[in-house]
Amino acid sequence: MTIAILSFIIIGYFIFRRNIPIIGVPQINKKDIELSMLNVVDIRDYNVSYKSPIQGAINIPVSYINRHYTDISKSDLIVVASNRLEKNVGIRLLSQKGFKIVGYILFDEYEMGEHR
């Protein structure tokens, strides 16, 4: 019985970390990204971000954040992601590394050509 309860707690913890959004990080309008003086970190996969690049953004996919977070300057960041799961995981990883995330932008696959 104790093992079952412990298993549910562990599984619940991982589901929470992946799917529950970070409180206090607002979504930013896509048009405001060019007006922003903040650093933009594009955490979309290389194959996706190549098709719709964001000028001036640092492209570090979620799976590479732990290895390459030192390439990002320690200032306020805007995160660009392709879906909510990627956004949640990326913001949590960057926050754990000491970055302050001030907002995020979601680009889904149907909007990819819109930003060019």
From TrEMBL:
Lineage top rank: taxon: Bacteria
Name of the protein in its database record: Rhodanese domain-containing protein
Taxonomic lineage: Bacteria, Bacillati, Bacillota, Bacilli, Bacillales
